[in-house]
Amino acid sequence: MPLATISTKTEPEWESELKRIRANGIKPEAWNVMLPAEFRVTGAEVDFAKLEKHLDTAYRRAAQAGGRVVVFGCGRCRTVPEGFSRSEAEKQLREFIFLAGRTAEKYSLRLAIEPLNSRETNIINTIGEAVAYAAAVNLPSVGVLADFYHMNEEHEPLSALLDARHYLIHVHVADSNRRRPGSGNYDYQGFCKSLMEAGYDNRMSIECVWGEDEDYEQRAALEFLRKCAEER
User: Fold this and answer.
1) What CATH code is carried by the domain that includes residue 181?
2) What is the pTM of this model?
């Protein structure tokens, strides 16, 4: 579920939404879209007080709904503005990740730093870069995410999963053209094997573009991923 949409709700609105979520019977353990699009974490317009207020409300509510991990992708929010100091932006990112990690600890959540391909942002484009930030803030609540789509877009080798084994806490999957797993030509057998070799045995989220028959596509994707796990 998108985290950014729940922080602006009034408490009565949130209570109503929480009832709807709980009635669904499936806990939303993983949350993406951590920040509203207008928020900045690099550049001259960063407002850490505003960020902290948003995170505290959103994390508290995500935890109430059964959340376990929050993904920090937010390519637009973290993109280093043209002409802005790269080193200063990196410092701002470390400060923000530390803030987000401490807030996550407060609500027994974990923060997963997501590498995004270079068409979506100009910073943290590889798993190795994400690991460097996680290591820099040095909080048990902060780890990294491996997104198979972004790995392929950046031509990142599967060995990056092994290198990140001590920080890997969440996984996103899609196939070529960002369609459902099993519909393209990505090396899912190799991907699943590398995850297992890295000791990863946790949740995985499908983050893709669904076709018109979404019900069929979701079932087909789940069946495909289960088969990959069985044949690893």
Assistant:
1) 3.20.20.150
2) 0.95
The DSSP secondary-structure symbol of 42 reads S
114 an active-site residue?
A: yes
- Catalytic entry in 114, 197, 212, 223: 114
- Rounded Cα distance, 8 and 26, in Å: 23
Domain region containing 72:
3-230
Active site residue 105: no
The token pair that represents 216 in the structure block? 């069929």
Catalytic residue among 90, 156, 207, 217: 207
For 117-130, the pLDDT digits (tens) are: 999 999 999 999 99
- Read off the tokens for 210: 């669904």
Exposure letters 162-180 (e unless 16+ CB within 10 A, then b)? eebeebbbbbbbbbeeebb
